[in-house]
Amino acid sequence: MIRWSQLGFGRTSSTSTSQQTERNLMGFKDGTRNIKAESADDFDDFVWVGGETDQAWMKGGSYLVARRIRMLIESWDTDYLADQENVFGRYKTSGAPLSGKQEFDTPDVRAKAFDGTPVIPLNAQIRLAGPETNSGQKILRRGYSYTDGIDLDTGLLDAGLFFIAYQKDPRRQFVPIQTRLGQRDNLNEYIRHTGSALFAVPPGLAAAGDWWGKSPFG
Ligand code: HEM
User: Fold this and answer.
1) What is the set of active-site residues?
2) Does residue 129 have its Cβ closer than 6 Å to ligand 1?
3) From the alpha carbon of 33, which atom of ligand 1 is closest?
4) Is 97 helix (H, G, I), strand (E, B) or coil?
5) For ligand 1, is residue 14 a contact (CB within 6 Å)?
6) For 147, how many CA atoms within 13 A lie in the half-sphere containing its CB?
7) Torsions phi, psi of 204, nearest 5?
């Protein structure tokens, strides 16, 4: 029985090197440094549950974190460009990190401006969420934008990101990243998390005669 659903559109994170990076409702390219389908090692290291699990039925599956994150778009749209770029740590037009020139340049979190201040701000999203700050951990983001009309209490847009991420161990991946973002992310001024869920996703079908859910229920 379906208890709840969220209509989304226009995936917000690219997940393959063959895709152009999409823009989210804040106008920024999203998914530049996501795990890509072509990197099999990243899938084994960060996405598929492996031999480390104490839940044998989850081996080959993954854990899905879903968050409904509302964007305060009216207030975001009044912010000036340089401030928006400091929120993420990337240029809006090209998607390049503030420490680089091209979209896929690796962010240099140690880069300093001539006056000694960090080029990628200390509370920029890419610094706080990136593997350099999270013991090398990554997640596979696969979200969608959503718009659910107008918030009748305020007359403002009810729109944002339906964040979806896959990982092999949320305690080591999503939770520490979100905790760091929740404490310090420059983006917090412009977003509100309004819903949250965690799903265990059993492995897919390996052979003829298999059925989905066989590992937990078979
Ligand atoms: C409305 C909320 C959010 C927006 C608009 C947003 C937007 C972005 C943008 C524009 C980037 C830079 C481009 C990229 O590499 O994809 C980025 C990076 C990233 N975000 Fe978010 N994000 C949001 C929430 C979150 C949340 C809740 C998490 C996880 C807890 C998260 C994790 C990440 C990660 C891991 C990266 C890549 C960092 C790197 O390795 O450089 N984001 N996000």
Assistant:
1) 30
2) yes
3) 15
4) strand
5) no
6) 10
7) -75, -170
SS3 category, 128: helix
Q: Using 50, 70 and 90 to split pLDDT, how confident is the model at 214?
A: confident
Q: Give distance in angstroms: CA of 125 to centre of ligand 1.
A: 6
Residue 199's alpha-carbon distances to 29, 54, 69, 110, in angstroms, are 27, 17, 17, 36
Q: Is 178 in the pocket of ligand 1 (CB under 6 A)?
A: yes
Establish whether residue 163 lines the binding site of ligand 1, counting it when its CB lies within 6 angstroms of any ligand atom. Answer: yes
Cβ neighbourhood burial of 39 (10 Å; 0-12, 13-18, 19+): middle
- 3-class DSSP assignment, residue 71: strand
**According to the model, what pLDDT value does residue 12 have?**
73
Name the residue type at position 148. Answer: D
| Structural tokens at position 206 | 């390996």
Q: What is the pTM of this model?
A: 0.95
Q: Which two tokens stand for residue 64?
A: 């899905």
Locus of tokens 């995936």: 11
